[in-house]
Amino acid sequence: MDFDFTQEQVMLRNLTREFLSRESTPRAARAAMEDPRGFSDATWRQMAEMGLPGVAIDAGYGGQGLGMVELALVLDEMGRAAYPGPYFATALLAASAITASGQENQMARYLPDIAHGRTRATLALIDDALAWTPAGVTMRVERRGDGFVLSGEKRFVPFAEAADLLLVVARTGDGPDGTSVFVVPRDLAGVTSSPNLEMDRTNQTSTVAFEGVSVGLDAVLGEVDRGWAVIGPTLQRAAVGAAAEMLGAARRCMDMSVEYARVRQQFGQPIGMFQAIKHMCADMLLEVENAHAAVYYAAWALDAGSPDAALAASSAKAYVGEAARKVCGSAVQVHGGIGFTWEYDLHLYFKRAKHFEPLYGDADFHREQALRLMLERAAAEQPQTESVAALVS
């Protein structure tokens, strides 16, 4: 069994790293913090020329036709560089949801423009309940004639200020699902937004308000009252993508710590010679390597349609969320007082990891998901086990 990346995957990772090391420097990240939309148009255009927004979009819709592994590689590098921009919202959240709908007309309408960087989009999912399940969707939509009227608020919408399209999840019915997904142009009458003050200011979110926003039946993505058939698979990919970003941020913090331990002198020798620092760096490496394995196995499982893909995605998000927090926290300790300062770049990566820790399900949520999946598997296997036992007896 070969666990190495293919030559093409290595080339994609190296090209992305080279590009981000040039265009997404700490200075660029700090400049994006002051931009109302939170990103650079020039950098986005260059990413589009490289084909990065269409990495995981089918070639028939203008993308590169690659998979979650390749998308995770790109997001890993974006976490490592603390890239400030709507890539995650557009290339993962929106593109995944549109693809999951399976609607040929909607895919042909939106995916080519997303793949070529002409359209930026995002997912408006969270309501006051701050939940990642259908029950957490409380914003209701009124059916009026041949269309719908949206009224209410969506919270923590990523890069809403930069988006051309909002994929809005709202309640249209009752029952276990009862949700629907609507594609709403950002400039439609009645749509307003206000940016939130985030801890990670390179990852902008907004509260988006809808005041009597009218959309037609053609705005529905997927089927009415079956929105979770679109959102469920999207959230699995989002969990793995978020874990990839946290992995990149943790890896960057570890690398900075090792380099700092080599050059920082105390008592006439590098602090890396002290046993406590050695152990701390060794523990950081252990967490990063385990996180790497968890992320890329989950990405492979999603691409392969493996029976344990959902379990792998939840395991990756749960593990990497806590591992990244440990690694980034240890990095601050290795650096000492300078690690806490605004002027030092370490906080960019620490905050990137912390930003994604609760998003798309925190560790507790995904542990519960993993337990539920394992119990369902055990229940499905029990009749077969009992029948085998009866034959043996």
Polypeptide structure, described:
It is a single chain. The chain has 393 residues and is an alpha+beta fold. The chain is 53% helix and 15% strand. Helix 5 (87-101) runs antiparallel to helix 7, helix 7 (228-263) packs antiparallel against helix 10 and helix 8 (275-304) packs antiparallel against helix 9. The radius of gyration is 22 Å and the shape is globular. The model has no long low-confidence stretch (mean pLDDT 93).
Order of secondary-structure elements? HHHHHHEEEEEEEEHEEHHHH
Number of helices: 11
Q: Estimate percent helicity.
A: 40-55%
Strand order of the largest sheet: 1-4-5-8
Per-chain topology:
Layout lengths: L6 H17 L2 H8 L7 H10 L17 H14 L5 H15 L2 H12 L5 E4 L16 E4 L2 E12 L6 E7 L7 E7 L5 E5 L9 E12 L3 E2 L6 H36 L1 E2 L2 E2 L4 H30 L4 H27 L10 H11 L6 H30 L1
Helix pairs in contact: 1-4, 4-7, 5-6, 5-7, 7-8, 7-9, 7-10, 8-9, 9-10, 9-11
Key phrases:
four-stranded antiparallel beta sheet; four-stranded mixed beta sheet; alpha+beta; globular; 10 strands; 393 residues
Brief summary of the model shown:
This protein is 53% helix and 15% strand. It has eleven helices and ten strands.
